[in-house]
Amino acid sequence: GENVEQHPSTLSVQEGDSAVIKCTYSDSASNYFPWYKQELGKRPQLIIDIRSNVGEKKDQRIAVTLNKTAKHFSLHITETQPEDSAVYFCAASSGYKLSFGAGTTVTVRA
Amino acid sequence: ETGVTQTPRHLVMGMTNKKSLKCEQHLGHNAMYWYKQSAKKPLELMFVYSLEERVENNSVPSRFSPECPNSSHLFLHLHTLQPEDSALYLCASSQDSGQGAEQYFGPGTRLTVT
After folding, report:
1. CA B11 from chain center: how many Å?
2. How far is residue A29 from each of residues A4, A109, B37, B97, measured CA to CA in Å?
3. pLDDT of residue A92 exceeding 70
4. Taking a C-beta distance cutoff of 8 angstroms, is the pair B86, B21 a contact?
5. Strands across the sheet containing A72-77
6. Less crowded by CB within 10 Å, the N or C end of chain B?
7. What b/e readout covers B7-39, taking b as 16+ CB neighbours within 10 angstroms?
8. How far, in Å, CA of B81 to CA of B112, rounded?
9. What CA–CA distances, in Å, run from B82 to A61, B3, B6, B35, B97?
10. Nearest partner of A37 among A108, A105, A110, judged by Cα
């Protein structure tokens, strides 16, 4: 089955700086790569996703890049704000089943 | 109510109890999922239902029994649980297109087994 590894497990950044989270996957058939944000005590919510026919996607301050050859994808958050503090999960899928990374706890210091 | 709802939000049960978790989706989706979320671990997929048929059972112990009576409702029946089953149980739904689709999560049920 698919195995998704996510790094780092924790990330502390100064407000206004950038944050980068990296994930690798094992199944070359995976073609859908979403990122979820989970604030404390709340449900995971999709913040951005990318499909295997695209190398990069951007939505305001967040962007995701995908390298199919190397089987890795990354989340970039620019100009971080306190409300970006949360746990972020990457995932990979080739159908209905999502395989999740272990999560990255991001703390934005004011 | 819109989206995915779950009840109860919190549940404390003894190891000999029987209880059920309920999930309802109002999004018109045809696939529903149960996940277990424990501290410091990835989300663990437990069961997947597509068009009311179970399509995945990820080696989950038989003390967890899912039920999907229709495409909008999903239950997780619990009996003789162990303390290590204490976790946040999340329900999700998606439109099963076979190409990967956004999963919408419910708020979860925080389960404590004493």
Report:
1. 14
2. 13, 39, 26, 16
3. yes
4. no
5. A4-7, A19-25, A72-77, A62-67, A56-59
6. N
7. eeeebebeeeeebebbbbbeeebbbbbbbbbee
8. 10
9. 43, 31, 22, 17, 36
10. A105
| A43 Cβ contact list (under 8 Å, min separation 6) | B4, B90, B105, B106, B107, B108
Determine the pLDDT at residue B53: 81
Tens-place pLDDT, residues B59-81: 899 999 999 999 999 999 999 99
**Residue B100 in contact with partner chain A when CB distance is under 8 A:** yes
pLDDT tens per residue across span B20-30: 999 999 999 99
CA distance A71 to A31: 11
Quick check: A23 and A5 in contact, CB under 8 A?
yes
Beta strand residue intervals within A28-96, DSSP E: 32-38, 45-51, 56-59, 62-67, 72-77, 86-93
Residue-level length of chain B? 114
- A1, with CB counted inside 10 A (0-12, 13-18, 19+), is exposed
Handedness of CA B97, B92, B34, A1 (dihedral sign): positive
CB atoms within 10 A of CB A109: 11
User: B-chain residues within 8 Å CB-CB of A42?
Assistant: 107
Q: Which residues of chain B are within 8 Å of residue A96 when distances are taken between CB atoms?
A: 31, 48, 50, 55, 94, 96, 98, 100-101
B2: DSSP letter: -
Q: Enumerate the residues of chain B whose CB falls inside 8 A of the CB of residue A4.
A: 42
